[in-house]
């Protein structure tokens, strides 16, 4: 009987571990041209939540915009990129200090990848004694890597006090990360480090600076609906209408 119980336990453990590997994959979707969106999953208070991130394939190598939220995917992401494109990852930008964005700084830096953040992000990581980027960039910086040019821009406070977006003018791709909520989102999500009143102004800045995006990538959930930025503004407005003080 005891033996049977331990066999059953063994089978349960085995099927669970299979289940887990099935639940924590690394889906990579082609967006357009040299752009790919990848997703990782993280257990947040008992619920598996996905996080979107972006990478760009250039002649010089691959540029990551945000690290996987799931740290067990740090190396598999490099391996998948190598297998898919036969290229090395050469740069990583984190769009704010939270773990679903900047969590990979230490790992990727040790792999010889150049890591970047703005000073606001660096100040937070330093204060929280977390791994920091090797390079600190100004709040509005244009990079040319191989055949691609992109702008990394701090629009002001929003989801976080240090959130940045990336804009690819030629392809009209706006990578918003957590600054932008998915068109499916029912609320603004985690607001522990947010300034909702400023978020509204920051969204307006992004909308007037980066015109007619064709692709908009939010930090979580569906990214195929480009109403996401307008939807974020709507959620912000609703929130402010409900709490006129605006702060949190
Ligand atoms: Zn965040």
UniProtKB/TrEMBL annotation:
<dbReference type="InterPro" id="IPR001279">
    <property type="entry name" value="Metallo-B-lactamas"/>
</dbReference>
<keyword id="KW-0732">Signal</keyword>
<dbReference type="InterPro" id="IPR058199">
    <property type="entry name" value="BlaB//VIM/IMP-1"/>
</dbReference>
<dbReference type="Pfam" id="PF00753">
    <property type="entry name" value="Lactamase_B"/>
</dbReference>
<keyword id="KW-0046">Antibiotic resistance</keyword>
<feature type="signal peptide">
    <location>
        <begin position="1"/>
        <end position="19"/>
    </location>
</feature>
<feature type="domain" description="Metallo-beta-lactamase">
    <location>
        <begin position="50"/>
        <end position="220"/>
    </location>
</feature>
<protein>
    <recommendedName>
        <fullName>beta-lactamase</fullName>
        <ecNumber>3.5.2.6</ecNumber>
    </recommendedName>
</protein>
<keyword id="KW-0574">Periplasm</keyword>
<keyword id="KW-0862">Zinc</keyword>
<keyword id="KW-0479">Metal-binding</keyword>
<dbReference type="GO" id="GO:0017001">
    <property type="term" value="P:antibiotic catabolic process"/>
</dbReference>
<comment type="subunit">
    <text>Monomer.</text>
</comment>
<comment type="similarity">
    <text>Belongs to the metallo-beta-lactamase superfamily. Class-B beta-lactamase family.</text>
</comment>
<keyword id="KW-0378">Hydrolase</keyword>
<dbReference type="InterPro" id="IPR050855">
    <property type="entry name" value="NDM-1-like"/>
</dbReference>
<dbReference type="InterPro" id="IPR036866">
    <property type="entry name" value="RibonucZ/Hydroxyglut_hydro"/>
</dbReference>
């Amino acid at each position: 009987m005891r033996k049977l119980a331990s066999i059953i336990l063994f089978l349960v453990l085995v099927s669970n571990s299979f289940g887990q590997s099935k639940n924590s994959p690394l889906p990579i979707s082609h967006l357009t041209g040299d752009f790919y969106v990848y997703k990782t999953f993280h257990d947040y208070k008992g619920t598996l939540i996905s996080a979107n991130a972006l990478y760009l394939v250039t002649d010089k190598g691959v540029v990551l915009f945000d690290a996987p939220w799931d740290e067990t995917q740090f190396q598999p992401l490099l391996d998948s990129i190598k297998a898919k494109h036969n290229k090395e990852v050469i740069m990583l930008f984190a769009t704010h200090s939270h773990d679903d964005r900047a969590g990979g700084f230490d790992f990727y830096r040790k792999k010889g990848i150049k890591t970047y953040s703005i000073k606001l992000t660096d100040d937070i990581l330093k204060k929280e004694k977390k791994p920091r980027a090797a390079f600190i960039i100004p709040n509005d910086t244009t990079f040319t890597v191989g055949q691609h040019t992109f702008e990394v821009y701090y629009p002001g406070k929003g989801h976080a006090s240090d959130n940045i977006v990336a804009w690819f003018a030629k392809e009209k791709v706006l990578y918003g990360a957590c600054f932008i909520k998915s068109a499916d989102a029912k609320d603004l999500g985690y607001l522990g480090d947010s300034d909702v009143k400023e978020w509204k102004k920051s969204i307006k800045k992004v909308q007037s600076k980066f015109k007619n995006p064709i692709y908009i990538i939010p930090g979580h959930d569906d990214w195929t609906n480009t109403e996401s930025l307008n939807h974020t503004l709507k959620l912000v407005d609703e929130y402010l209408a409900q709490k006129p003080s605006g702060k949190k």
